[in-house]
């Protein structure tokens, strides 16, 4: 988002609490996927719940809620190749649910609302997990467990996504080599790292280097912010999370220049219960079982319904090509020698833990689809892992 909007601060605070809870652990979260169901709730919320939701989302009135969904079409375009996702609100299967809350949710809000019989908890868990697994082509499974649902459950939010980015201009598999990576001070492991020399958007300062690379999907890009040393990562993360315009400022000041970029091929998976994180941001009323301010979901406003749980499960994968594996490098001869124009290009080598995001970029706003920190592979990579066949 634009740097002066409250939602940026909310996203950063959420990610900060998650990252600080498990330092040194790979993590990815999606502020954008979470905000869509919250916008849906804000559209019907009343009283203190409305105030809390609108404040957290960064909006002053209902008219401004429409901007909450401007990313929906871009997200849909990403689903053509790179993104498999589902974004759902599950409400208890009771006759009091107003059908107006369910209809047009996908068209207007980019989410789906489903009625589930929470009176049968084990069956509800099985139904939700099967539905999420089916809609994500089994790439995301087992999002909820038996402890998430009981007979008192009234509503839960589930977001799940698998992203495998397809570059606008792919990397060459043949240039991927085992290189040194420093996950912590004094420790070195060898992992597959991709390399490409080209024109990239880039910036550096006394704290970090940052590069942004375009995906093939409209408006989507991948940004790495690399501390100047492994020891500087905590300070860099503090800058990112304490200065809500830090990343936005870096990206808007980037300039195109010749650059040799090298960074790991990686996967990051996260399974996050966002319930407590959201409460810490001031969203408490919607969880109040006696007066949630969400009575607009029901036909009879004299009754109450509250949100009980928010779960998110994500899988982000970055490699040389992405989903569109149609390039046959073996028919192209050896890798081309870089032209003299690139001979003295500066280097960006992500050989230590870094912050990353995958964003949707508009003229006056930047939506962070995924944000995370990569500390290195969870298991030591072997040389066999880079025996790549381009025909895959």
TrEMBL record:
Listed GO MF terms: serine-type endopeptidase inhibitor activity
Keyword terms of this UniProt record: Protease inhibitor, Serine protease inhibitor
Alphabetical list of SUPFAM superfamilies matching this protein: Serpins
GO (cellular component) term, any one: extracellular space
Domain of life where this protein originates: Eukaryota
Domain Serpin per the UniProt entry, residue ranges: 18-377
Family according to the record: Belongs to the serpin family.
PANTHER family in the cross-refs: GH10112P-RELATED (PTHR11461:SF211), SERINE PROTEASE INHIBITOR, SERPIN (PTHR11461)
Protein name: Serpin domain-containing protein
């Amino acid at each position: 988002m634009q740097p002066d909007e409250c939602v940026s601060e909310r996203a950063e605070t959420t990610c900060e609490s998650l990252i600080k809870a498990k330092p040194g652990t790979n993590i990815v979260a999606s502020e954008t996927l979470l905000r869509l169901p919250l916008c849906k709730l804000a559209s019907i919320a009343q009283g203190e719940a409305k105030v809390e939701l609108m404040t957290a989302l960064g909006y002053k009135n209902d008219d401004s809620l429409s901007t909450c969904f401007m990313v929906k079409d871009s997200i849909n375009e990403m689903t053509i190749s790179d993104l498999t996702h589902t974004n759902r609100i599950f409400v208890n299967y009771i006759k009091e649910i107003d059908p107006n809350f369910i209809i047009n949710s996908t068209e207007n809000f980019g989410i789906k609302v489903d009625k589930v019989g929470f009176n049968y908890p084990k069956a509800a868990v099985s139904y939700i997990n099967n539905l999420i697994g089916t809609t994500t082509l089994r790439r995301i499974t087992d999002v909820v467990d038996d402890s998430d649902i009981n007979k008192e459950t009234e509503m839960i939010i589930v977001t799940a996504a698998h992203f495998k980015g397809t570059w606008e201009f792919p990397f060459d598999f043949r240039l991927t080599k085992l290189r040194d990576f420093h996950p912590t001070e004094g420790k070195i492991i060898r992992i597959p790292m991709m390399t490409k020399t080209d024109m990239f958007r880039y910036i550096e300062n006394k704290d970090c280097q940052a590069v942004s690379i375009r995906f093939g999907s409209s408006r989507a890009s991948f940004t790495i912010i690399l501390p100047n040393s492994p020891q500087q990562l905590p300070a860099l993360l503090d800058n990112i999370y304490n200065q809500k315009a830090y990343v936005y400022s870096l990206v808007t000041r980037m300039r195109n220049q010749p650059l040799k970029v090298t960074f790991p091929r990686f996967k990051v998976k996260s399974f996050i219960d966002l319930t407590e994180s959201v409460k810490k941001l001031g969203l408490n009323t919607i969880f109040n079982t006696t007066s949630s301010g969400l009575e607009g979901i029901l036909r009879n406003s004299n009754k109450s319904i509250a949100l009980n749980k928010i779960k998110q499960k994500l899988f982000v994968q970055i490699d040389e090509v992405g989903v569109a594996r149609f390039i046959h490098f073996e028919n192209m001869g050896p890798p081309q020698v870089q032209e003299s124009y690139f001979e003295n290009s500066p280097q960006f080598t992500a050989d230590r833990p870094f912050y990353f995001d995958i964003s949707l970029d508009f003229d006056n706003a930047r939506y962070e689809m995924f944000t995370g920190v990569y500390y290195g592979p969870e298991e030591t990579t072997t040389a066999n892992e880079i025996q790549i066949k381009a025909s895959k």
